[in-house]
Design goal:
Length: about 425
Protein backbone atom coordinates (compact mmCIF):
# COMPACT_ATOMS: atom_id res chain seq x y z
CA UNK A 1 0.00 0.00 0.00
CA UNK A 2 1.14 3.54 -0.79
CA UNK A 3 1.14 5.53 2.50
CA UNK A 4 -0.10 9.10 2.21
CA UNK A 5 -2.32 11.42 4.19
CA UNK A 6 -4.21 14.71 3.85
CA UNK A 7 -3.39 18.06 5.49
CA UNK A 8 -5.64 21.11 5.71
CA UNK A 9 -3.86 24.24 4.51
CA UNK A 10 -6.16 26.42 6.64
CA UNK A 11 -6.43 24.77 10.09
CA UNK A 12 -3.49 22.34 9.64
CA UNK A 13 -5.53 19.31 10.70
CA UNK A 14 -4.26 15.96 9.44
CA UNK A 15 -6.44 13.15 8.13
CA UNK A 16 -5.78 9.61 6.98
CA UNK A 17 -6.51 8.68 3.39
CA UNK A 18 -9.43 6.50 4.49
CA UNK A 19 -11.03 9.35 6.49
CA UNK A 20 -11.10 11.56 3.40
CA UNK A 21 -11.72 9.08 0.61
CA UNK A 22 -14.28 6.72 2.13
CA UNK A 23 -16.73 9.54 2.79
CA UNK A 24 -15.59 11.45 -0.31
CA UNK A 25 -14.49 14.65 1.39
CA UNK A 26 -12.98 17.24 -0.92
CA UNK A 27 -12.28 20.02 1.58
CA UNK A 28 -11.25 19.84 5.23
CA UNK A 29 -14.00 18.10 7.28
CA UNK A 30 -13.38 20.60 10.10
CA UNK A 31 -13.14 23.98 8.41
CA UNK A 32 -13.74 23.50 4.69
CA UNK A 33 -16.06 25.97 2.97
CA UNK A 34 -17.09 26.41 -0.66
CA UNK A 35 -19.18 29.57 -0.46
CA UNK A 36 -20.50 31.23 -3.59
CA UNK A 37 -18.24 33.93 -5.04
CA UNK A 38 -15.53 33.27 -2.47
CA UNK A 39 -12.21 31.41 -2.60
CA UNK A 40 -12.21 27.95 -1.08
CA UNK A 41 -11.40 27.53 2.58
CA UNK A 42 -9.76 24.40 3.92
CA UNK A 43 -8.22 22.98 0.78
CA UNK A 44 -6.54 19.63 1.37
CA UNK A 45 -2.92 18.90 0.49
CA UNK A 46 -1.56 15.38 0.18
CA UNK A 47 1.65 14.41 1.96
CA UNK A 48 3.89 11.34 1.95
CA UNK A 49 6.61 9.76 4.07
CA UNK A 50 9.44 11.64 2.40
CA UNK A 51 12.15 10.13 4.59
CA UNK A 52 11.06 6.68 3.43
CA UNK A 53 10.75 7.80 -0.18
CA UNK A 54 14.35 9.07 -0.17
CA UNK A 55 15.37 5.42 -0.37
CA UNK A 56 13.64 5.12 -3.76
CA UNK A 57 13.80 8.60 -5.24
CA UNK A 58 17.03 10.58 -5.13
CA UNK A 59 18.60 13.11 -7.48
CA UNK A 60 20.26 10.50 -9.68
CA UNK A 61 16.92 8.67 -10.05
CA UNK A 62 15.12 11.77 -11.33
CA UNK A 63 17.96 12.72 -13.67
CA UNK A 64 17.53 9.37 -15.42
CA UNK A 65 13.82 9.88 -16.06
CA UNK A 66 11.97 11.03 -19.19
CA UNK A 67 9.73 14.08 -19.24
CA UNK A 68 6.02 13.27 -19.16
CA UNK A 69 6.20 9.74 -17.72
CA UNK A 70 4.40 10.24 -14.43
CA UNK A 71 4.04 6.49 -13.86
CA UNK A 72 7.78 6.11 -13.29
CA UNK A 73 7.54 7.51 -9.72
CA UNK A 74 4.25 6.00 -8.55
CA UNK A 75 4.91 6.41 -4.82
CA UNK A 76 4.52 10.18 -5.23
CA UNK A 77 0.86 9.81 -6.23
CA UNK A 78 -2.08 9.08 -3.89
CA UNK A 79 -3.01 5.84 -5.64
CA UNK A 80 -3.30 2.20 -4.70
CA UNK A 81 -0.89 -0.15 -6.48
CA UNK A 82 -2.18 -1.92 -9.61
CA UNK A 83 -3.92 -5.24 -9.07
CA UNK A 84 -3.85 -8.40 -11.12
CA UNK A 85 -5.86 -8.60 -14.33
CA UNK A 86 -9.34 -9.99 -13.77
CA UNK A 87 -9.15 -12.21 -16.84
CA UNK A 88 -6.69 -15.01 -17.61
CA UNK A 89 -3.74 -15.25 -17.45
CA UNK A 90 -4.26 -13.03 -14.36
CA UNK A 91 -0.98 -11.22 -14.87
CA UNK A 92 0.08 -8.30 -12.70
CA UNK A 93 -0.81 -4.94 -14.22
CA UNK A 94 2.09 -2.50 -14.41
CA UNK A 95 1.98 1.14 -13.31
CA UNK A 96 2.44 2.25 -16.91
CA UNK A 97 -0.70 0.39 -17.93
CA UNK A 98 -2.62 1.86 -15.00
CA UNK A 99 -1.80 5.42 -16.06
CA UNK A 100 -2.63 4.59 -19.68
CA UNK A 101 -1.53 8.08 -20.83
CA UNK A 102 1.92 9.64 -21.17
CA UNK A 103 2.75 13.26 -21.89
CA UNK A 104 5.43 12.47 -24.47
CA UNK A 105 4.94 15.68 -26.39
CA UNK A 106 5.80 17.93 -23.42
CA UNK A 107 8.96 19.67 -24.61
CA UNK A 108 11.59 22.10 -23.45
CA UNK A 109 12.33 24.89 -25.94
CA UNK A 110 14.18 28.17 -25.96
CA UNK A 111 12.92 31.48 -27.29
CA UNK A 112 15.66 33.87 -28.43
CA UNK A 113 14.79 37.53 -28.87
CA UNK A 114 17.51 40.13 -29.47
CA UNK A 115 19.91 40.01 -26.54
CA UNK A 116 18.08 37.57 -24.31
CA UNK A 117 16.54 34.13 -24.27
CA UNK A 118 13.94 32.38 -22.16
CA UNK A 119 13.17 28.70 -21.63
CA UNK A 120 9.74 27.36 -22.60
CA UNK A 121 7.79 24.47 -21.12
CA UNK A 122 5.50 23.53 -24.02
CA UNK A 123 2.28 21.79 -22.97
CA UNK A 124 0.43 22.42 -26.24
CA UNK A 125 0.82 18.86 -27.55
CA UNK A 126 -0.41 16.95 -24.52
CA UNK A 127 -3.20 14.38 -25.10
CA UNK A 128 -5.88 17.10 -25.15
CA UNK A 129 -3.44 19.96 -25.82
CA UNK A 130 -3.20 21.63 -22.42
CA UNK A 131 -1.52 21.49 -18.99
CA UNK A 132 -4.86 20.36 -17.53
CA UNK A 133 -4.16 16.76 -18.63
CA UNK A 134 -1.74 16.39 -15.72
CA UNK A 135 -4.60 16.79 -13.25
CA UNK A 136 -7.25 15.00 -15.29
CA UNK A 137 -5.22 11.78 -15.51
CA UNK A 138 -4.86 11.59 -11.75
CA UNK A 139 -8.53 12.44 -11.16
CA UNK A 140 -9.65 9.72 -13.60
CA UNK A 141 -7.40 7.15 -11.95
CA UNK A 142 -8.70 8.05 -8.50
CA UNK A 143 -12.32 7.88 -9.72
CA UNK A 144 -11.75 4.35 -11.03
CA UNK A 145 -10.04 3.24 -7.82
CA UNK A 146 -12.94 4.65 -5.80
CA UNK A 147 -15.38 2.72 -7.98
CA UNK A 148 -17.01 5.84 -9.40
CA UNK A 149 -18.08 5.84 -13.04
CA UNK A 150 -18.72 9.53 -13.68
CA UNK A 151 -16.65 12.68 -13.26
CA UNK A 152 -17.96 16.24 -13.27
CA UNK A 153 -16.15 19.55 -13.53
CA UNK A 154 -16.64 23.24 -14.16
CA UNK A 155 -14.34 24.90 -16.63
CA UNK A 156 -13.78 27.80 -19.00
CA UNK A 157 -12.90 25.13 -21.56
CA UNK A 158 -9.50 23.49 -21.10
CA UNK A 159 -10.24 21.50 -17.94
CA UNK A 160 -13.54 20.35 -19.46
CA UNK A 161 -12.02 19.22 -22.76
CA UNK A 162 -9.18 17.57 -20.85
CA UNK A 163 -11.54 15.70 -18.55
CA UNK A 164 -13.72 14.65 -21.47
CA UNK A 165 -10.76 13.27 -23.43
CA UNK A 166 -9.17 11.49 -20.47
CA UNK A 167 -12.53 10.04 -19.40
CA UNK A 168 -12.97 8.68 -22.92
CA UNK A 169 -9.67 6.81 -22.54
CA UNK A 170 -10.60 5.46 -19.11
CA UNK A 171 -14.20 4.50 -19.90
CA UNK A 172 -15.74 7.09 -17.58
CA UNK A 173 -18.67 9.45 -18.10
CA UNK A 174 -17.77 13.15 -18.15
CA UNK A 175 -20.20 15.90 -17.17
CA UNK A 176 -18.84 19.33 -18.05
CA UNK A 177 -20.21 22.66 -16.80
CA UNK A 178 -19.03 25.53 -18.97
CA UNK A 179 -20.05 29.17 -19.46
CA UNK A 180 -22.04 30.01 -22.56
CA UNK A 181 -19.17 32.11 -23.98
CA UNK A 182 -16.79 29.12 -24.11
CA UNK A 183 -14.60 29.29 -27.25
CA UNK A 184 -16.23 27.27 -30.01
CA UNK A 185 -13.14 25.12 -30.62
CA UNK A 186 -13.08 23.99 -26.99
CA UNK A 187 -16.79 23.23 -27.04
CA UNK A 188 -16.41 21.12 -30.20
CA UNK A 189 -13.47 19.29 -28.63
CA UNK A 190 -15.56 18.35 -25.59
CA UNK A 191 -18.43 17.13 -27.76
CA UNK A 192 -16.06 15.16 -29.99
CA UNK A 193 -14.78 13.24 -26.95
CA UNK A 194 -18.36 12.34 -26.01
CA UNK A 195 -18.53 14.61 -22.98
CA UNK A 196 -21.92 15.64 -21.62
CA UNK A 197 -21.93 19.44 -21.95
CA UNK A 198 -23.97 21.55 -19.56
CA UNK A 199 -23.91 25.08 -20.96
CA UNK A 200 -24.47 27.66 -18.22
CA UNK A 201 -25.95 31.12 -18.70
CA UNK A 202 -23.31 32.96 -16.73
CA UNK A 203 -19.58 33.01 -16.14
CA UNK A 204 -17.09 30.40 -14.94
CA UNK A 205 -17.76 31.19 -11.29
CA UNK A 206 -21.46 30.44 -11.81
CA UNK A 207 -20.58 27.15 -13.51
CA UNK A 208 -18.24 26.24 -10.63
CA UNK A 209 -20.91 26.63 -7.97
CA UNK A 210 -23.53 24.81 -10.03
CA UNK A 211 -21.16 21.92 -10.66
CA UNK A 212 -20.63 21.43 -6.92
CA UNK A 213 -24.35 21.38 -6.24
CA UNK A 214 -25.32 18.94 -9.01
CA UNK A 215 -22.30 16.65 -8.54
CA UNK A 216 -23.13 16.15 -4.89
CA UNK A 217 -26.76 15.43 -5.68
CA UNK A 218 -25.93 12.95 -8.45
CA UNK A 219 -23.00 11.22 -6.76
CA UNK A 220 -20.51 12.18 -9.48
CA UNK A 221 -16.81 12.50 -8.65
CA UNK A 222 -16.02 16.20 -8.81
CA UNK A 223 -12.84 17.45 -10.48
CA UNK A 224 -13.32 21.14 -9.80
CA UNK A 225 -9.98 22.84 -9.63
CA UNK A 226 -8.57 23.27 -6.10
CA UNK A 227 -11.75 21.73 -4.67
CA UNK A 228 -10.49 18.25 -5.55
CA UNK A 229 -7.02 17.73 -3.98
CA UNK A 230 -6.03 15.56 -6.96
CA UNK A 231 -6.01 18.61 -9.24
CA UNK A 232 -3.14 20.25 -7.37
CA UNK A 233 -1.46 16.88 -7.02
CA UNK A 234 -1.50 16.24 -10.76
CA UNK A 235 -0.22 19.69 -11.59
CA UNK A 236 2.78 19.32 -9.29
CA UNK A 237 4.19 16.97 -11.94
CA UNK A 238 5.13 20.05 -13.93
CA UNK A 239 7.84 20.82 -11.37
CA UNK A 240 9.20 17.28 -11.69
CA UNK A 241 9.30 17.58 -15.47
CA UNK A 242 11.03 20.95 -15.33
CA UNK A 243 13.75 19.36 -13.18
CA UNK A 244 13.99 16.32 -15.47
CA UNK A 245 13.87 18.27 -18.73
CA UNK A 246 16.54 20.75 -17.65
CA UNK A 247 18.69 17.98 -16.13
CA UNK A 248 18.54 19.62 -12.73
CA UNK A 249 19.67 23.07 -13.95
CA UNK A 250 16.62 24.93 -12.70
CA UNK A 251 15.70 28.45 -13.81
CA UNK A 252 15.77 31.33 -11.36
CA UNK A 253 12.28 32.52 -12.34
CA UNK A 254 9.23 30.69 -13.65
CA UNK A 255 6.39 32.76 -15.11
CA UNK A 256 3.00 31.10 -14.64
CA UNK A 257 -0.34 32.28 -16.05
CA UNK A 258 -2.85 32.37 -13.19
CA UNK A 259 -6.62 32.04 -13.12
CA UNK A 260 -7.81 29.83 -10.26
CA UNK A 261 -4.24 29.46 -9.02
CA UNK A 262 -3.91 25.67 -9.10
CA UNK A 263 -1.12 25.48 -11.68
CA UNK A 264 1.13 27.80 -9.68
CA UNK A 265 0.12 26.06 -6.47
CA UNK A 266 0.88 22.66 -7.96
CA UNK A 267 4.26 23.79 -9.33
CA UNK A 268 5.14 25.11 -5.87
CA UNK A 269 4.09 21.86 -4.19
CA UNK A 270 6.17 19.84 -6.66
CA UNK A 271 9.30 21.84 -5.91
CA UNK A 272 8.60 21.54 -2.17
CA UNK A 273 8.52 17.76 -2.54
CA UNK A 274 11.79 17.72 -4.47
CA UNK A 275 13.20 19.71 -1.58
CA UNK A 276 11.76 17.29 1.00
CA UNK A 277 13.44 14.44 -0.89
CA UNK A 278 16.80 16.20 -0.77
CA UNK A 279 16.92 16.45 -4.58
CA UNK A 280 17.13 20.27 -4.64
CA UNK A 281 18.10 22.86 -2.06
CA UNK A 282 16.49 26.00 -3.45
CA UNK A 283 13.84 26.38 -6.09
CA UNK A 284 12.78 29.03 -8.58
CA UNK A 285 10.91 32.19 -7.77
CA UNK A 286 7.36 31.76 -9.01
CA UNK A 287 5.92 34.75 -10.86
CA UNK A 288 2.12 34.87 -11.11
CA UNK A 289 0.89 36.55 -14.29
CA UNK A 290 -2.71 37.72 -14.60
CA UNK A 291 -4.69 39.73 -17.08
CA UNK A 292 -5.60 43.20 -15.85
CA UNK A 293 -9.23 42.19 -16.40
CA UNK A 294 -8.90 39.17 -14.11
CA UNK A 295 -6.45 40.13 -11.38
CA UNK A 296 -7.96 38.96 -8.09
CA UNK A 297 -4.73 37.29 -6.91
CA UNK A 298 -2.72 40.46 -7.50
CA UNK A 299 -5.25 42.56 -5.58
CA UNK A 300 -5.24 40.04 -2.73
CA UNK A 301 -1.44 40.03 -2.48
CA UNK A 302 -1.44 43.84 -2.41
CA UNK A 303 -4.24 44.32 0.12
CA UNK A 304 -4.58 41.04 2.02
CA UNK A 305 -8.29 41.08 1.24
CA UNK A 306 -10.44 39.37 -1.39
CA UNK A 307 -13.02 41.41 -3.22
CA UNK A 308 -15.19 39.80 -5.88
CA UNK A 309 -15.10 41.53 -9.26
CA UNK A 310 -16.37 39.89 -12.46
CA UNK A 311 -13.51 38.83 -14.74
CA UNK A 312 -13.23 39.93 -18.34
CA UNK A 313 -10.27 39.01 -20.54
CA UNK A 314 -9.56 37.48 -23.94
CA UNK A 315 -7.45 34.90 -22.11
CA UNK A 316 -10.45 32.77 -21.14
CA UNK A 317 -8.37 30.01 -19.53
CA UNK A 318 -7.22 32.42 -16.80
CA UNK A 319 -10.50 34.28 -16.47
CA UNK A 320 -11.68 33.83 -12.87
CA UNK A 321 -13.36 36.46 -10.74
CA UNK A 322 -12.99 34.07 -7.81
CA UNK A 323 -9.65 32.23 -7.81
CA UNK A 324 -10.68 29.15 -5.85
CA UNK A 325 -7.07 28.40 -4.86
CA UNK A 326 -6.41 32.04 -3.92
CA UNK A 327 -4.88 31.50 -0.48
CA UNK A 328 -2.50 28.71 -1.42
CA UNK A 329 -1.53 30.45 -4.67
CA UNK A 330 -0.64 33.60 -2.75
CA UNK A 331 1.37 31.45 -0.36
CA UNK A 332 3.22 29.85 -3.30
CA UNK A 333 4.20 33.26 -4.64
CA UNK A 334 5.29 34.52 -1.25
CA UNK A 335 7.17 31.43 -0.05
CA UNK A 336 9.05 31.04 -3.34
CA UNK A 337 10.24 34.64 -3.14
CA UNK A 338 8.32 35.56 -6.27
CA UNK A 339 5.82 38.25 -7.11
CA UNK A 340 2.62 38.81 -9.09
CA UNK A 341 2.02 41.21 -11.95
CA UNK A 342 -0.73 42.01 -14.41
CA UNK A 343 -0.58 42.52 -18.16
CA UNK A 344 -3.05 44.07 -20.56
CA UNK A 345 -4.92 41.95 -23.08
CA UNK A 346 -3.12 43.86 -25.85
CA UNK A 347 0.22 42.68 -24.45
CA UNK A 348 -1.08 39.11 -24.31
CA UNK A 349 -2.10 39.27 -27.97
CA UNK A 350 1.30 40.60 -29.01
CA UNK A 351 3.07 37.88 -27.02
CA UNK A 352 0.86 35.24 -28.61
CA UNK A 353 1.88 36.47 -32.05
CA UNK A 354 5.54 36.56 -31.02
CA UNK A 355 5.55 32.96 -29.75
CA UNK A 356 3.67 31.67 -32.78
CA UNK A 357 6.01 33.33 -35.28
CA UNK A 358 9.33 32.86 -33.49
CA UNK A 359 8.97 29.26 -32.28
CA UNK A 360 6.37 27.56 -34.47
CA UNK A 361 4.46 26.74 -31.27
CA UNK A 362 0.80 27.71 -31.51
CA UNK A 363 -0.42 28.99 -28.13
CA UNK A 364 -3.71 30.32 -26.87
CA UNK A 365 -3.83 33.74 -25.15
CA UNK A 366 -3.59 32.34 -21.60
CA UNK A 367 -0.38 30.52 -22.47
CA UNK A 368 1.04 33.68 -24.02
CA UNK A 369 0.28 35.67 -20.86
CA UNK A 370 3.39 34.16 -19.27
CA UNK A 371 5.62 35.70 -21.96
CA UNK A 372 3.81 39.03 -21.63
CA UNK A 373 4.56 38.88 -17.91
CA UNK A 374 8.21 38.09 -18.53
CA UNK A 375 8.59 40.97 -20.99
CA UNK A 376 6.93 43.39 -18.58
CA UNK A 377 9.02 42.22 -15.61
CA UNK A 378 12.16 42.64 -17.68
CA UNK A 379 11.19 46.12 -18.90
CA UNK A 380 10.54 47.45 -15.37
CA UNK A 381 13.60 45.75 -13.82
CA UNK A 382 11.61 43.33 -11.68
CA UNK A 383 13.99 40.49 -12.59
CA UNK A 384 17.74 40.17 -13.01
CA UNK A 385 18.32 39.93 -16.79
CA UNK A 386 21.44 37.84 -16.20
CA UNK A 387 19.48 35.09 -14.46
CA UNK A 388 17.57 32.24 -16.13
CA UNK A 389 13.84 32.46 -16.76
CA UNK A 390 11.21 29.98 -17.92
CA UNK A 391 7.66 30.53 -19.11
CA UNK A 392 4.82 28.00 -19.20
CA UNK A 393 2.92 27.58 -22.46
CA UNK A 394 -0.19 25.98 -21.03
CA UNK A 395 -2.54 25.48 -23.98
CA UNK A 396 -2.70 25.18 -27.76
CA UNK A 397 -3.82 28.02 -29.97
CA UNK A 398 -6.09 25.62 -31.85
CA UNK A 399 -8.35 25.71 -28.79
CA UNK A 400 -9.25 29.34 -29.45
CA UNK A 401 -9.51 30.04 -33.17
CA UNK A 402 -11.18 33.40 -32.53
CA UNK A 403 -8.01 34.65 -30.86
CA UNK A 404 -6.07 33.78 -34.02
CA UNK A 405 -8.65 35.57 -36.15
CA UNK A 406 -7.94 38.71 -34.15
CA UNK A 407 -4.31 38.42 -35.18
CA UNK A 408 -4.70 37.56 -38.84
CA UNK A 409 -6.98 38.65 -41.68
CA UNK A 410 -8.16 35.95 -44.05
CA UNK A 411 -6.26 36.40 -47.36
CA UNK A 412 -8.12 37.27 -50.53
CA UNK A 413 -8.49 34.62 -53.24
CA UNK A 414 -7.58 35.36 -56.87
CA UNK A 415 -7.95 33.57 -60.17
CA UNK A 416 -5.04 31.53 -61.53
CA UNK A 417 -4.21 34.20 -64.13
CA UNK A 418 -3.85 36.88 -61.45
CA UNK A 419 -1.36 34.79 -59.46
CA UNK A 420 0.54 33.93 -62.63
CA UNK A 421 0.73 37.57 -63.61
CA UNK A 422 1.98 38.55 -60.18
CA UNK A 423 4.78 36.01 -59.98
CA UNK A 424 5.48 35.00 -63.58
CA UNK A 425 4.60 38.10 -65.55
CA UNK A 426 2.54 38.50 -68.67
Amino acid sequence: MNPYYYNCFNCHSQFSASEIEQDLHYLCPKCGKADKNKPLRGILLISYDYQQLKKSYDRSFFLKQTVGQMWRYPLLWPLQPPEYAKDPPFRKIEWKELFSVDLPATKMHELRLDDYSVKLLDETNNPTYSYKDRASMLVALKARQLGLGAVSTASTGNAASSMAGICARFGLQAHLWVPENIPEAKLMQILAYGGQVHLVQGDYDTAFDLSLEISQRMGWYNRNTAYNPLTMEGKKSGAFDIFIGLRGDLPDYIFVPVGDGVVIGGIYKGFCELQHLGIIEDFPKLIAVQSSGSNALIRFIQTGKFEFLPAETIADSISAGVPRNLYFAANAVRESGGFALEVDDADIVESQKLINEKTGILVEPAGAASLAGYLKAKSVDKIDPNKKSMILLTGSGLKDIDSLKRLHRRPDAFRTEVWQERYVGE
